[in-house]
Amino acid sequence: MIEAENIHHVSLSVTNLANAKAFYSNIICLKEIERPDFGFKGAWYQVGNQQLHLIEYPSSSSLRNTSELDSKVGHFAIRVKDYDECVKWLSKKEVEFYENRTSRSGFAQIFVADPDGNLVELNTEQ
């Protein structure tokens, strides 16, 4: 039997590391951490006790090739402290987002797409 303890990291393929880093550092406000040299471009971010790993891989088959905001497609979620501040910040940065304050999930959700269309959910308790 496998006994999972937690999710350690999520890895995403990106086509342009500089664009992706600008999004995750300056829009999502994640803290970049040291990453070993694997011989290919990438970046790591600390997200609470977990990590987000970006891998520059332009020919990846996992890229969505769309920035359509659809909560039914694969995504990962980041818990944020303040829903309204998040909405204000994204609006100020002119980032397109979809929000659902009264989701049946029990938490208020905001969806954004990174420059490669990777979908990110930002959420708080309702």
Task: Write up what this structure looks like.
With 126 residues, the chain is an alpha/beta fold. The chain has a single domain, classed as 2,3-Dihydroxybiphenyl 1,2-Dioxygenase, domain 1. 17% of the residues lie in helices and 35% in strands. The chain is built from two helices and eight strands; from the N terminus they run βαββββαβββ. Strands 1-4-3-2 form a four-stranded mixed sheet, covered by helices on one side. Strands 5-8-7-6 form a four-stranded mixed sheet, with helices on one face. The radius of gyration is 15 Å and the shape is globular. The N and C termini lie far apart (35 Å). The mean pLDDT is 93.
Beta strand %:
25-35%
CATH topology title: 2,3-Dihydroxybiphenyl 1,2-Dioxygenase, domain 1
Our Rg estimate from Cα atoms comes to: 15 Å
- Gap between N and C termini: 35 Å
Which structural category do the helix and sheet elements fall into?
Answer: alpha/beta
Helix content: 10-25%
Strand order of the largest sheet: 1-4-3-2
**Total beta strand runs:** 8
Order of helices and strands: EHEEEEHEEE
The CATH architecture assignment turns out to be: Roll
Please give the largest β-sheet: 4 strands, mixed
Low-confidence stretches: none
Can you identify the CATH class?
Answer: Alpha Beta
Indicate how many domains the architecture comprises. Answer: 1
The number of helical segments is 2
- The CATH homologous superfamily corresponds to 2,3-Dihydroxybiphenyl 1,2-Dioxygenase, domain 1
What global shape is seen?
A: globular
- Overall average pLDDT: 93
